Amino acid sequence: MAAVNQTTGEVLHSDPSAEARRGNSTTTNESLRMVISPLSQLITMRLEDDNFLMWKYQIENVVRGYGLEGFLFGIEQVPPKMVTDETGILVPNPKFRDY
Questions:
Q1: How far is the C-alpha of 27 from the C-alpha of 37, rounded, in Å?
Q2: DSSP 3-state assignment of 9?
Q3: Taking a C-beta distance cutoff of 8 angstroms, is the pair 2, 35 a contact?
Q4: Which of 11, 68, 81, 85 has a CA positioned 20 to 30 A from the CA of residue 29?
Q5: What's the rounded Cα separation, in Å, for the pair 65 and 14?
Q6: Whole-prediction pTM
């Protein structure tokens, strides 16, 4: 897991052993799970009339730090809820669950 600067939201370092445990599943979707719960802790200021640039800087750092640009700009597409497995049966899509 990555440590995040509480002021800027910037990712400071990652834990290589955590990365290894995840194997090839190190995806943006895994980052989403991490960012959802502490988001209010990462964004320390509310948007006001006089602080847009500082607020924007914080938001951009969180988005970049967790690799969420694709979701913000529409590059990443929402995966289908259900997929057909190798036997032709409709099953829940694990990529959708992660999304």
A1: 17
A2: coil
A3: no
A4: 85
A5: 11
A6: 0.44
Within 13 Å, how many C-alpha atoms sit on residue 36's CB side?
8
Q: Which one, of 41, 42, 96, lies nearest residue 65 by Cα?
A: 42
Per-residue pLDDT tens digits for 30-70: 655 555 556 777 788 889 999 999 999 998 988 888 888 88
Q: Up-side HSE of residue 23: CA atoms within 13 Å toward CB? A: 0
User: Please, which residues bridge with residue 3 across strands?
Assistant: 13
Return the residue matching tokens 């002021």. 7
* Single-letter amino acid code for the residue at 62: V
Q: Which two tokens stand for residue 95?
A: 């990529």
Is-contact 65 4, C-beta < 8 A?
A: yes
pLDDT for position 7: 56
